[in-house]
Amino acid sequence: MQANLQWLDDPEVFRVNQLPAHSDHHYYHDTAEFKTGSRFIKSLNGAWRFNFAKTPAERPVDFYQPDFDATDFDTIQVPGHIELAGYGQIQYINTLYPWEGKIYRRPPYTLNQDQLTPGLFSDAADNTVGSYLKTFDLDDAFKGQRIIIQFQGVEEALYVWLNGHFIGYAEDSFTPSEFDLTPYIQDQGNVLAVRVYKRSTAAFIEDQDMFRFSGIFRDVNILAEPASHITDLDIRPVPNANLKSGELNITTKVTGEPATLALTVKDHDGRVLTSQTQTGSGSVTFDTMLFDQLHLWSPQTPYLYQLTIEVYDADHQLLEVVPYQFGFRTVELRDDKVIYVNNKRLVINGVNRHEWNAHTGRVISMADMRADIQTMLANNINADRTCHYPDQLPWYQLCDEAGIYLMAENNLESHGSWQKMGAIEPSYNVPGDNPHWLAAVIDRARSNYEWFKNHPSIIFWSLGNESYAGEDIATMQAFYKEHDDSRLVHYEGVVHTSELKDRISDVESRMYEKPQNIVAYLEDNPTKPFLDCEYMHDMGNSLGGMQSYNDLIDKYPMYQGGFIWDFIDQALFVHDPITDQDVLRYGGDFDERHSDYEFSGDGLMFADRTPKPAMQEVKYYYGLHK
């Protein structure tokens, strides 16, 4: 197969040769590697050769050929944003599409439902291109194994070649993309070529309120898989009604040769609670395991059990060890139309959190993530909505450990397709009811579910943000309901399409609703509990009046709290030659008009993670309902 540039123009092409999404488990050769690091993973982070082209027509066409002369290529750091490396235009946008007022574009299959628009992005004057090259050798532990490459985040459309051979294509900027390199891998001198286009049809459904960047902005790893390998792990811990006992069901997917899987579950103190052995390949399911004297996971006591599965070959040689921490907890929407977690009414003291670093943008570190967890815990914040995309893989484990509830959101926002100049006008809304956009958004739901399905911190799946509503989003909800009965589903945009309210979202969710309107809803025999997915917009000297929302918690059991917009400013440090100091610059400060006033600066913290005075208000009021 050859790469096709026209895939950029077609919403029905969003993954080519991409491996299926799976659980986010790690694997090691033996338990000693838990501390030293797995021999089966090799980071390709660091310096890459790089070429920047302003348009697709100006890209170096054959750069992926092994004999290509790249002496005139620059060097760029991976992970990193192309724009922050000094190429292209830094641009912040709230609701519109980046090209509005400059280029006329409509989503394919909307105004004309039977055809594409040739050259929509593949021959576009505003579609910058980054061409990356990396050479690498295989470590001894990798030789003779199946070799996978994993891109944890690439914005926005990704083409991959190895040693001159086309490997695959992927969209969905915030979800890992994996490809099989095995047919073309060499022990030495491998030439990996990656082409990243800033825009494709994915741009119509990745219209989030944020700086618009491009490039390889999360980790890149190559992975070696042993002869028998657990590719997926599905952990289903279910407490009984008494919340004192429960059962555990575990299913794995094993690729390669049939293997013996030895499972052990330990409690938090390391005591063995149960063990079991199964043999096979493909789907391997363990017998149901019964537990008494359960310790439940909750924000107050985020108790985690330790699962370990050892994989042995036919000669009983250890091939790999898979560890995973999991928790027991219940999430129920009862007949009284109130949500309960572990038989206690749920109260969300939440924030919306963009991933952000004032120096590196959405390239964030473990230190950034740990600092954010500590800030949440110190200020009585018990919940995070991953606005408006899946976060880096470690974030979910950190929230499990800290006891932070998660609303795990899909990478979906199409704000500019239905809200124009402040008016609701969905004539070319996507995904809407459009069958040509359905597969792409279902794929995003599937990826979100598969990667993060084992985390007890996730109590809501969120279908996306501000994308209006239609049959496609209703089908996304049906996907989650079919695959997961242990969580609820959230989506705010159905507020615009009352005819779909029975099929989309388990909660009534509105943007910045006034307290008196929430009261009117709650006193009118409502069918769903109420949740503020965004409220208390913290722009400027704001966040006053928080008590008026807090009072609703005491008076109305069906009011379940909300998520403040938002956690941290989106701003970048820029060196000011006049003062010779590094200063924070916000949306609109980069000669990138259009912008939206100071909308990129609406966090409880400044972009350097210094708390604003508003954080004191949050700590006080959220502390009243811990």
TrEMBL record:
Pfam families: Glyco_hydro_2 (PF00703), Glyco_hydro_2_C (PF02836), Glyco_hydro_2_N (PF02837). It comes from the Bacteria. Its EC number is 3.2.1.23. One of its GO terms (cellular component) is beta-galactosidase complex. Keywords: Glycosidase, Hydrolase. One of its GO terms (molecular function) is beta-galactosidase activity. GO terms for biological process: lactose catabolic process. It catalyses: Hydrolysis of terminal non-reducing beta-D-galactose residues in beta-D-galactosides. Belongs to the glycosyl hydrolase 2 family. PANTHER family: BETA-GALACTOSIDASE. This is beta-galactosidase. It comes from Loigolactobacillus coryniformis subsp. torquens DSM 20004 = KCTC 3535.
